[in-house]
Amino acid sequence: MKDAGKQRRFPTADLARVAVFAALIAVLGLPGSVNVFGNATPITLQTLGVMLAGAILGTWRAALAVAVLLVLVAAGLPLLAGGRGGLGVFFGPSAGFLIGWIPGAALTGWLVERAGRNPGIVQLVVACLVGGVGVVYLFGIPVQALITGVPLGTTALLSTAFLPGDLAKAVVASIVARGTQRAYPDAVPTVHRERMRIGGER
After folding, report:
1. Which of 71, 138, 174, 186 pairs as cysteine with 124 (C-beta 3.0–4.6 A)?
2. What is the CATH number of domain 2-201?
3. Alpha carbons 116 and 6: distance in angstroms, whole number
4. CB–CB of 117/188 below 8 Å?
5. Phi-psi category of residue 35: left, alpha or beta, with phi > 0 → left and psi -120 to 50 → alpha
6. Quick check: 86 and 129 in contact, CB under 8 A?
7. Do the Cβ atoms of 137 and 94 come closer than 8 Å?
8. What is the pTM of this model?
């Protein structure tokens, strides 16, 4: 009976945080999107939300928040920048980038968790760049090349237009995350995980 009580649970507070960040990513799509240099994939603020989710929620909660948003999008809700939604978006040029949000948020969270109880700005920026930019590009660029028929090298070159904005988003996400963590220590993924472990052992 004691072992049954130790089974993995999803606390209400965690589910609420997941819902809040799914909503935050959706809200960041309200300003719309911009296409540059003829690139088929638009620039949006929603990747900022993906980075924030990873930096504050940690691995599995960040991935779940993004997954919830994408399920709602697939169901037809216009939650992506520009009011896009429906299954069609997962067959368009930006499909790989969207799918890449899930592992991107997860890796960002995993790296922040490895940064300990007091992650610094540099550590947060690196986590956001590796997960929120590198992983997302790793999924997005090949899929865009496949769907558009543009050579992979050309697609990768066109995608460099996103880099300045993504770097800025990584810095902003890191500053916001660090400020939130200082005001609310449970927003540090490692601290939250330790508290959950202690609570589960009682």
Report:
1. 174
2. 1.10.1760.20
3. 25
4. yes
5. beta
6. no
7. no
8. 0.88
Convert 6-35 to b/e letters by CB count within 10 Å (16 or more is b).
eeeeeeeebeebbeebbbbbbebbeeebee
Question: E strands, 46-198, where?
Answer: none
Output the tens digit of pLDDT for each of the chain's 202 residues: 444 444 455 688 899 999 999 999 999 998 755 555 455 556 789 999 999 999 999 999 999 999 999 999 999 999 998 889 999 999 999 999 999 999 999 999 999 999 999 999 999 999 999 999 999 999 999 999 999 999 999 999 988 988 999 999 999 999 999 999 999 998 999 988 888 777 654 4
Q: CA-to-CA distance for 168 and 156, rounded, in angstroms? A: 19
Q: DSSP letter at 161?
A: G
Of 149, 195, 192, 154, the closest CA to residue 62 belongs to 192
Nearest residue to 75 (alpha-carbon basis) of 86, 64, 60, 66: 86
How far is Cα 159 from Cα 137, in angstroms, rounded to an integer?
A: 8
Q: Where are the domains of the chain?
A: 2-201
Cβ atoms < 10 Å from Cβ of 106: 24
